[in-house]
Amino acid sequence: MSFFQKWKAVAAMIFVELALAVVNALLKKVLSKGMNQLVISTYRFSIAAIILTLMACFLERNFISNLTGRVGCSLFFSALLGGTLTQYFFLIGLKYTSTTFSCAFINMVPINTFIMALVLRQENINMKCKSGRAKALGTLCCLGGALILTLYKGMPLINQPAPEVEVNHNTKSWIIGSLFLFAGSIVWSSWFLIQARIGKDYPYQYSSTAIMSFLGAIQSAILSLVIDRNTSAWFMKGTLEISTVIYAGIVGSGLCYVVMSWCVKQKGPVFTSAFSPFIQIFAALIDISILHEQIHLGSILGSILVIIGLYILLWGKSKEAENLKNSPTTDKNGQDTLPVTSSPSHT
Fold first, then answer.
1. Which of 72, 143, 216, 330 could cysteine-pair with 79, CB 3.0–4.6 Å?
2. What is the pLDDT of residues 197-223, one digit of tens each?
3. Could you tell me the keywords of this UniProt record (predicted)?
4. Is pTM, for the whole model, over 0.85?
């Protein structure tokens, strides 16, 4: 295997996290100016659908013939969970908090996926082996980090004047934003599980993402009209809002979703979601150097605990995969059919 083939998935995911950090920083700016969350989602999904449909027509010409009713239903729920609801919850949370803080909740996606699998009996913990104890410890660390992020803001760590939007973030709004971010991380975890199944039934990254974006645009528009019927919210004002929506549509809701879908298919959802801490690192650099936002102690402590728990869990998953690979009962357990238990080494 060549160096490029070995590391292209890693490089692709680092690019995705950097691009999403830029998207989040731009969205924070336009949200602070009063732009509607669902309007942003509708426009960005519409742009992504148009761009990806054109790409799918050239690169995946047989995608229509393989589109079944079951796949269409899965794509509808994929758009609802990974598109409409995730964007809505995340953008509300971003409005009430900061870019770096909101990105910390993305790190909880692998843990949420693991807990959901436990509830659905698709995953188990064997406390008699190291891998089982590691998974349990990692889960507890992440839950503790989530509680710190939600309930403890802490003192500011950078001696610089806080921007006007930060002054308005009182404790109540910070907790409200945290709850929306947590809800967003839950539905985002569900998207990874659904997408892993879609990748097997419908292996067309461009067309599946285009359809998901199209359905997400319709869902976001309907939800926006139900919640707020003010038509003036649909008119964008200024170059920043227009450029943010275009960039978020082409890159954030288009190319990034395509790359993530490809990585889920190639390496599994655990590998793909394991790069989520990078988005917080990139977002922190943008926050401090460009947006001049404040960093608080609670964000740092909670983020460190979440990241430590994340990689303890991933280590446990890796050891479990090694044990299953060496065990004669691997096929009997059927681990390869469960998205949440897919090993990063499986291709």
1. 216
2. 787 888 887 888 889 889 999 999 998
3. Membrane, Transmembrane, Transmembrane helix
4. no
